[in-house]
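Subject: design request, 295 residues
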């Protein structure tokens, strides 16, 4: 079995490296030749287009930064859909359920299977090979990949059924909780800081109490207290995911009061810090509003 991998960004490159180092034959493509050189040095074959990857690999995995990029790679004239060998297109990015349904339909019409496999765990999880992977869509593709390529990148792999898009909704449910944890934790810590509490003391108490979450346990201690703001999640990715969450909520007609306020706060930070800045720079906006410094 040959695995194709397209999209060697902050999450994609370490995933492709882990799959390669697990002993699988891998064919890669990315517009950034520096990234493909890294994989070539580790034994991967470098292709010149998404179609060429699909001409040479049995299954093509992608993790791309935007829906436009995902559409072009999947369905463009030089996309995976035009490849002669690939049996299935596996979408590991966060693109929403509407994209999943339309892409699955197009792939099926071309004789290829479709599997959603969005990932969670951030750049640290991608580097360590401990991502959570949630899957929906073609069951045979899931079964073919679960004990090899997907096992090489994940600590938790869950199949959510054959309906395309189910895993995308699951990913957005997870993301909105994560974004909420980050925002609420930072907002609360600015209160404590202004009242004279140290960040280290607050986190020590919180992480031994009911307020602990991923933001307080590792994101803030490792990427914020040193003011490196280097978690690895760029604001433009967060903006995409927040908009996809809004679309799902509107489509399913479910509550969105808390999420809307949170999205507004993130957008305010993005306007101030820039779309290429890290999600953790949200703290700077909260510090400015509160006229205080956490550290």
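Subject: RE: design request

Done. Sequence follows.
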């Amino acid at each position: 079995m040959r695995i194709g991998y397209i999209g060697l960004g902050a999450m994609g490159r370490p995933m492709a490296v882990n799959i390669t180092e697990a002993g699988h034959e891998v064919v890669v493509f990315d517009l950034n030749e520096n990234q493909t050189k890294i994989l070539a040095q580790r034994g991967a074959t470098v292709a010149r287009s998404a179609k060429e990857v699909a001409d040479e690999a049995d299954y093509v995995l992608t993790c791309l930064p935007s829906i436009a990029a995902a559409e072009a790679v999947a369905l463009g004239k030089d996309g995976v859909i035009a490849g002669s060998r690939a049996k299935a297109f596996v979408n590991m990015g966060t693109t929403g359920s509407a994209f999943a349904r339309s892409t699955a339909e197009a792939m099926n019409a071309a004789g290829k299977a479709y599997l959603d496999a969005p990932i969670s765990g951030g750049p640290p999880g991608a580097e360590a090979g401990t991502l959570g992977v949630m899957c929906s869509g073609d069951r045979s593709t899931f079964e073919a990949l679960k004990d090899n390529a997907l096992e090489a990148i994940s600590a938790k792999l869950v199949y959510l059924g054959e309906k395309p898009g189910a895993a995308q909704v699951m990913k957005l449910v997870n993301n909105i909780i994560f974004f909420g944890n980050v925002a609420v934790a930072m907002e609360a810590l600015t209160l404590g800081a202004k009242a004279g509490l140290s960040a280290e003391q607050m986190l020590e108490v919180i992480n031994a109490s009911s307020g602990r979450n991923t933001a307080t346990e590792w994101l803030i201690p490792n990427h914020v207290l040193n003011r490196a703001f280097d978690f690895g999640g760029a604001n433009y990715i967060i903006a995409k995911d927040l908009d996809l969450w809004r679309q799902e909520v509107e489509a399913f007609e479910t509550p969105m009061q808390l999420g809307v306020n949170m999205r507004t706060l993130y957008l305010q930070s993005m306007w101030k810090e820039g779309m290429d800045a890290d999600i953790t720079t949200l703290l700077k906006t909260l510090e400015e509003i509160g006229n205080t410094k956490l550290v």
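The first strand starts at residue 2 and ends at 6.
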